[in-house]
Design brief:
This protein is of the alpha/beta class. The protein contains 7 helices and 9 strands, in the order βββαββαβαααβαβαβ. Bound molecules: adenosine-5'-diphosphate (ADP) and magnesium ion. Adenosine-5'-diphosphate (ADP) binds next to strand 1, strand 2 and helix 1.
């Protein structure tokens, strides 16, 4: 088991109000699984993904990632885990516009101990995996939406993380590009990657191995 959360609870404060977002969520993900998380807007999907990505600490519950008790670790250790063991893919790609694709994919290595030569070859391997070798010296603005998301996926893959987390990765794409990105996730999954993908597109979710649905904070 790669991911195991139990009794997860989370809320946000807005002024005097407490917005309950997650309520007693239990979830496990095996190594090599491809899981989709669905649910209406505001149901807590991004919050759940941010907790799995060690970006926020839940208000309640436990989280084991690769056997580590995540909630017992100090921020410094969590930063190292985020940098080396987790790859993030976002709806809006979050590529840096002034950098070319290779430079974008090299960014995660700024936070790793991997030396420059090895970083470059790992980045190139990730770019090859997403089929963008012919685009390495292009800037994001010169790419289509689907290509930008593939570049962002290469960046997430570059450090060879154990877990890929994708938040509405096809949310900004047309149908054809969505299909391309889904096919890419499916091929990464076939190659052994563990993926948790949030989506509200049933056609995209259907490409995963297992679909979980969040409703009013309950899974
Ligand atoms: N940083 C925050 N501060 C206050 N409220 C938040 C914050 N982030 C999310 N929320 C609220 O929590 C609820 C769940 O948000 P989110 O996890 O982003 O849902 P989803 O990704 O399913 O749309 C929503 O009502 C949202 O407005
Ligand atoms: Mg969201």
């Amino acid at each position: 088991m790669l991911v195991e959360v139990r009794g997860l609870g989370h809320y946000y404060r807005r002024g005097p109000h407490r917005i309950e977002v997650l309520d007693r969520v239990d979830m496990t993900v095996d190594r090599g699984e491809f899981v989709a998380v669905m649910g209406p807007s505001g149901s807590g999907k991004s919050t759940l993904l941010h907790i799995l990505g060690c970006l926020i600490r839940p208000a309640a519950g436990s989280y084991q990632l690769a056997g580590m008790d995540i909630l017992a670790l100090p921020e410094r250790k969590l930063a190292a885990i985020r940098a080396s063991r987790i790859g993030f893919v976002f709806q809006k790609f979050h590529l840096l516009p002034e950098l070319d694709i290779l430079q974008n994919v090299l960014l995660p290595f700024l936070y790793s101990r991997i030396d420059t030569r090895r970083a470059r070859s790992m980045a190139m391997a990730a770019i090859e995996q997403v089929g963008l070798l012919h685009r390495i010296d292009h800037r994001p603005a010169e790419l289509s939406g689907g290509e930008m998301q593939r570049a962002a996926i290469a960046r997430a893959l570059a450090v060879q993380p154990e877990l890929i987390l994708a938040d509405e990765p096809t949310g900004n794409l047309d149908r054809a590009s969505s299909g391309e990105v889904l096919d890419l996730f499916r091929s990464l999954h076939a190659g052994g990657c563990t993926i948790v993908m949030v989506t509200h597109d049933p056609a995209v979710a259907a490409g995963a191995e297992r679909i979980l649905t969040l409703n009013d904070g309950r899974l």
